[in-house]
């Protein structure tokens, strides 16, 4: 099963970083957030990706060209017609289609432009800025169990501020940004049937709007409720939060380390 990742947005709310690179290339723990997302899928055996490029997409191309050819130990023999010889491989067994989908194309349009690369079969889709400890195998099993066209992962995000618990007026506990108990939001990590492409009219369509709304109207959208960790890197504050978790060794989304 192939995985589509949208990595073409301008990331304007993270302008401190995205003025020089696309948001999926902003690093946590010395690796782009895109790498973290792909490692999650790879942990469950899914190594075939189609990445929708847009804003500063050349940065993503350059990273994976170098990641695939320059990682690990090398021998360079200038007298050899093929001077670069690699030793052991120190990277995941990924195959990537890096597809230019336009600087101004919206999320639905980017998904639509990936259609020729996805094949006529079930595929996965996620955004290039969100990490989670979601069990991909359980997500796929849920999708197969209901027979609908689309599965969306519903998550409870972290609260923006810490919570206090009281006994009368006495503070008995202070919880630093716990998972919120109110409501569910779109956490991406979709599983989709190819008929979903028919719900996207063109480039200037937000996937989160008409396509999902019409899938829901037609009774074709189901939610996989993920109670575990999920976080999106929308702002510099979000990046610092993820970096702090990484540095502390508490890396809940790094399922490949467990």
Automatic annotation (TrEMBL):
The keyword Nucleotidyltransferase applies. InterPro entries: G1P_cyt_trans, G1P_cyt_trans-like, NTP_transferase_dom, Nucleotide-diphossugar_trans. CDD domains: G1P_cytidylyltransferase (cd02524). Pfam families: NTP_transferase. Its EC number is 2.7.7.33. GO terms for molecular function: glucose-1-phosphate cytidylyltransferase activity. Keywords: Nucleotidyltransferase, Transferase. Transmembrane segments: none annotated. Residues 3-201 form the Nucleotidyl transferase domain. The keyword Glycosyltransferase does not apply. It comes from the Bacteria. NCBIfam families: G1P_cyt_trans. This is Glucose-1-phosphate cytidylyltransferase. It comes from Psychromarinibacter halotolerans. The lineage of its organism: Bacteria, Pseudomonadati, Pseudomonadota, Alphaproteobacteria, Rhodobacterales. The gene is rfbF.
């Amino acid at each position: 099963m192939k995985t589509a990742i949208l990595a073409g947005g301008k990331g304007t709310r993270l302008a401190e970083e995205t003025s020089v690179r696309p948001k999926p290339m902003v690093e946590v723990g010395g690796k782009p957030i895109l790498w973290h997302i792909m490692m999650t899928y790879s942990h469950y055996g899914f190594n075939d990706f189609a990445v929708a490029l847009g804003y500063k997409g050349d940065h993503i191309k350059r990273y994976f060209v170098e990641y695939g050819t320059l990682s690990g130990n090398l021998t360079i023999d200038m007298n050899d017609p093929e001077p670069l010889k690699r030793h052991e491989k120190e990277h995941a067994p990924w195959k990537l289609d890096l597809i230019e989908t336009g600087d101004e194309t919206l999320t639905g349009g980017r998904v639509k432009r990936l259609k020729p690369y996805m094949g006529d079969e079930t595929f996965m889709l996620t955004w290039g800025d969100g990490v989670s400890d979601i069990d991909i195998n359980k997500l796929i099993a849920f999708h197969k169990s209901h027979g609908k066209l689309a599965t969306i992962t519903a998550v409870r995000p972290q609260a923006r501020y810490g919570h206090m618990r009281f006994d009368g007026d006495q503070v008995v506990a202070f919880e630093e940004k716990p998972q919120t108990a109110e409501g569910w939001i779109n956490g991406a990590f979709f599983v989709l049937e190819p008929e979903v492409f028919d719900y996207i009219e063109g480039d200037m369509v937000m996937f989160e709007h008409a396509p999902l709304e019409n899938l829901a109207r037609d009774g074709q959208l189901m939610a996989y409720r993920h109670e575990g960790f999920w976080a999106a890197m929308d702002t510099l504050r979000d990046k610092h939060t993820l970096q702090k978790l990484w540095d502390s060794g508490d890396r809940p989304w790094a399922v490949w380390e467990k």
